[in-house]
Specification:
Bound molecules: NADP nicotinamide-adenine-dinucleotide phosphate
Distance between the termini: 46 Å
Largest sheet: 6 strands, parallel
CATH class of the largest domain: Alpha Beta
Radius of gyration: 19 Å
Strand content: 15-25%
Oligomer: single chain
């Protein structure tokens, strides 16, 4: 039987600290910490994510500046908006909700956001700094995972960590963070051979592939720490993760549930990065 890592509870604790810091900033500077959130188009999932981010800002004393642009927005219009936000001294962080409509070039648009306002931690400079073990605004989801490990007294040093998934927003920064924390890290992906065997060697297994209940008990070492980043739907349309929670929880020492695990930590780390960006001025 395993310890359930409660992301919801931890996120609430961290948000209380972030709120205090945001209030302190406001007292010292006579203005609130500000986050600009840019949404283009009508994607329903993106609209929900943006609403949740704005609500989380309100709850933590961060002022949100919300821009909802029509789906037919041109590249130049988006970039003009971003340039204005970059120049705006009340805006400390800028977030462009992805994916953008297909006719827009996300990579080109995101290049307009300087590293110090890149609160998603996606730009080359922040990723490069992370890779080199220097201070950086770190991608929110993997950063949240590290906070979870820390909160539960799990030190990656010397441990064998396996990251399943190599996306730029989760898998790769996750691997770098674990490496920076002195774990011995293996990154797996769709071309990995003997995947189950590699996963079963992990002391810490982080799964981010987007395949419902893909990781089964036979892929997990007895006593492992299992972090499930996945947000999927099972055969009944119910929210679930990339890990078969019910079976794996009998074998793991620690495990994150879905929902209530990594999810609440992601927005929390966005708030954290925004306050950090403001404090760095
Ligand atoms: P992504 O960009 O689609 O990347 C998926 C990765 O998984 C790729 O590296 C892919 O390998 C690998 N993969 C896919 N199928 C595989 C298989 N059968 N065996 C081995 N590797 C496989 O996904 P993502 O953006 O990282 O997201 C992953 C999951 O996390 C999704 O469920 C997403 O919804 C969730 N997520 C949750 C949060 C949160 O806040 N909780 C945040 C972000 C993402 P290749 O590179 O070889 O194609």
């Amino acid at each position: 039987m395993s310890v359930r890592i409660d992301g919801k509870e931890l996120a609430a604790k961290l948000r209380a600290d972030i709120r205090e810091e945001a209030e302190q900033y406001a007292r010292q500077h006579g203005k609130q910490v500000g986050l600009a959130v840019v949404l283009v188009g009508e994607d329903p999932a993106s609209q929900v994510y943006v609403r949740n981010k704005i609500k989380a800002c309100e709850e933590t004393g961060i002022r949100s500046y919300s821009y909802h642009l029509p789906a037919e927005t041109r590249q130049e219009q988006l970039e003009e908006l971003l340039d204005g936000l970059v120049a705006d001294k009340n805006v400390h962080g800028i977030l462009v909700q992805l994916p953008l409509p297909k006719h827009l070039d996300a990579e080109r648009a995101l290049k307009h956001i300087p590293s110090e306002k890149d609160v998603d931690g996606f730009c080359a400079e922040n990723v490069g700094n992370l890779a080199m073990g220097r201070a950086a605004l770190v991608a929110c989801t993997p950063h949240g995972v590290m906070k979870m490990l820390e909160a539960y007294g799990i030190d990656p040093r010397g441990k064998r960590a396996v990251v399943l998934g190599r996306s730029n927003i989760v898998g790769k920064p996750m691997a770098m963070l674990l490496l920076n924390a002195d774990a011995t890290v293996t990154v797996c992906h769709s071309k990995t051979k003997d995947l189950a065997k590699v996963c079963a060697e992990a002391d810490i297994l982080v799964v981010a592939i987007g395949r419902a209940k893909f990781v089964t008990a036979d892929m997990v070492k007895e006593g492992a720490v299992v972090i499930d980043v996945g947000m999927d739907r099972d055969e009944n349309g119910k929210l679930c993760g990339d890990v078969d929670y019910e079976a794996v929880k009998e074998k793991a020492a620690y495990i994150t549930p879905v929902p209530g695990g990594v999810g609440p930590m992601t927005i929390t780390m966005l708030l954290y990065n925004t306050v950090l960006a403001a404090k760095r001025g």
